Every structure is written in structure tokens, then in C-alpha cells.
Amino acid sequence: MEFNEDIEKQFFEKIKNIKDLSELKKIEIEYLGKKGIVQELYKKIKDLPEEKRKEFGEKVNNLRNIIESSIESTKAQLESSLADLKLSSEKIDVTLPGLHFQRGSIHVLTKVIEEVKSIFVSMGFDVFSGPDIEDDYYNFEALNIPEHHPARDMQDTFYLAQKILLRTQTSPMQIRIMKKLKPPIRMIAIGRCYRRDALDSSHSPQFHQVEGLVVDKGISFANLKATLSEFSKKMFGENTRIRFTPSYFPFVEPGSETSISCVICGGKGCPVCKYTGFLEMGGSGMVHPNVLRNVGIDPDEFQGFAFGWGIERIAMVKYGIPDIRYFYQNDLRFLKQF
Ligand code: PHE
């Protein structure tokens, strides 16, 4: 085979239209491979007459250099356009709207519980919490509600064993704390309570209460009134007034139902307060001497007051929530409002 200028021409013809690296590889093998065109040309050298060998060899060297460098540059071109293609297909449009995370928020009951706590803490109260599963003794017996007492009727509950029950009120915390601490005592306890109540707009078999207890020398009903009045002003607004109506709870004497002036009409009467001007919040009264005796405190030396208000009730009045069931349904349209 003579050296032929056409080899170079053909090579450039082929490489001109190359589209991808695998095609290029084929051409590289065809020309530069062990059995490729260039190698074949080198093999020819030994068959040439002495005087032509040098010139022929130089031509082949030259051809090989041209082919090598043009394959290299074509390869670089293909690679960079591939990279461009990749980049343009993967580019990020920073103006597109992002993915939104659903941000949670504090449940309204938790929020109210925290607010109740901080108001009472500001008045010097300690905060305690006790068990949801109670002993009959703490929930009833020690609170002056013996077995067969009719007051138990209103507080039927879920029994886990014979005298082990889900507490119907936070009042057992009065007993637990008085048994543990010596007066002066100034505490609140907030937590879940359970009763055999059907679920409707104002009842739930599970709800929350805040219990308050103060025991010291010379405590009177005036202290109870001042405390709840102060709390109500801070919770519901400066103009809130408080009303006590005689009521019966076996563990207080005297006992009362406690109401606040209606947050909507201020006491004039409106549909929210059913034209009474007041909204009931819970029970309160002076700790019964029998209860003090049950925990070993001398009622002639110490007196106390106690109250138990509904957390849901406080939240409903404060935020104008018409139905207790909203608290437990986990409906985001409701929860997002707080
Ligand atoms: N524990 C009572 C109830 O749940 C409320 C109450 C508490 C009444 C403290 C008086 C004193 O009905």
C-alpha cells in the first residue's frame, strides 16, 4: 500500500459528522488501533526500498499526529457539549415556588394551660401534676365522699380495678399535696379528668381541670374571692367580675359555683350567657374540716380554700369556642386559628 493522501481526507470526512463518544471510539480504533490503518502503514515500511523508507515513515508519523490530535479535540468538544446539555437539563429555577412544610402549632388547650399556670405562678402558686389513674381513696374517700354517697352518682367513671379509677376531678391533688407538704400551701394542679358523660357540645368523657388549693392560718372566703377575681381579670380582661352561688361539694364548706361576668355582654345579658349575665366556670369553697382532718391538719389551726375550674370552659369563654368537641377533632381549620 502506497501512502495515500485520501486517508487523511476520509478521516476528516468521517469525524466531521460525529455525534457521540461511542462513534468517535470506533473511528479511533479504526485508525489508531493495533490493527488499524496507521499500524498497517507502519508495517509497510519494511517492504519499501531503503531510500523511500524515511520519507514514508515521516508521512505516517505526521498522519498519526494529525489523527491523534483531532480525535482528542473532537472528544473534548463532545464532552463539553454533553456537560452543557446535562447542566441545562438540571438547572434550578430559583423563582419557582418552593415546597412548603406544614408548620405545627401549640394546641389551644396547651396554650390556655400555660397561660393559667403563668398567672397563678405570678401570684406565688406552685404547680403540681398528679396521676390520671387514681385510688378511690384520693378521688372520693379522703375528699369526704364515702362509698354510697350520692355525690358519686354525678362522677361515675372508668374503673381499671376494684378501687382504681380514672380520676373524675383534679381534687385528689388536694389530698396528695396536703399529705406531702406542711402549710402554708399555695398550689395549682392541672390535668385530665374522666367521667361517664356522653359527648355533646358541652360535655366530654375526657376533659381538663385546674385545681387550686391554699392552706394557711387565717385563710377566709375573702382570700378565695380575691384570688379568683384576680385570676379572672388577668385571664379574661380587667372588667371581669366574679360571682359565687351556693352549691354543694362534700369537700368544701361553704361551697359555691363560681361564675364570671359574661365576656360578651359584660353582665347585661345576651344569648351567650343565656341572658343571665354570667358564665359558670367551676366549683370552689372553703376546705371542709373533715378533709383537713383526713390529712392530719388541725382545722382549728389552719384553714384553706380550693377551687376546680374547667380548662376547656376557660378556653371556650376566652376564645368564643361554641363546642367542646372542636378541641379533640384535630381539624386544622380550627387548630390553625390559635
Ligand atoms: N372538683 C369539683 C368538680 O369537679 C370542683 C371543685 C373543686 C369544687 C374544688 C370545690 C372545690 O366538680
Features:
7-stranded mixed sheet; 338 residues; binds phenylalanine; 2 domains; BirA Bifunctional Protein, domain 2; alpha+beta; single chain
Strand-helix topology:
Layout lengths: L4 H12 L4 H12 L4 H8 L5 H41 L17 H15 L3 E3 L4 E3 H4 L19 E3 L2 E3 L5 H9 L4 E10 L11 E11 L4 H16 L5 E5 L5 E10 L16 E10 L1 H6 L8 E8 H9 L12 H4 L3
Parallel strand pairs: 1-5
Antiparallel strand pairs: 2-4, 3-4, 5-6, 6-10, 7-8, 8-9, 9-10
Helix pairs in contact: 2-4, 5-10
Bound molecules: phenylalanine.
Phenylalanine binds next to strand 8, strand 9 and strand 10.
Please describe what this structure looks like:
- The chain is an alpha+beta fold.
- The protein folds into two domains: 2-89; 108-335, 2-Layer Sandwich (BirA Bifunctional Protein, domain 2), CATH 3.30.930.10.
- Helix content is 40%, strand content 20%.
- It is built from eleven helices and ten strands.
- It has helices at 5-16, 21-32, 37-44, 50-90, 108-122, 136-139, 172-180, 221-236, 289-294, 311-319, 332-335; strands at residues 126-128, 133-135, 159-161, 164-166, 185-194, 206-216, 242-246, 252-261, 278-287, 303-310.
- It has a seven-stranded mixed beta sheet with strand order 1-5-6-10-9-8-7, sandwiched between helices. Strands 2-4-3 form a three-stranded antiparallel beta sheet.
- A hairpin with a 5-residue loop joins β7 (242-246) and β8.
- α2 packs antiparallel against α4.
- 28% of the residues are buried.
- The model has no long low-confidence stretch (mean pLDDT 94).
- The site of phenylalanine has 12 residues, from β8, β9 and β10.
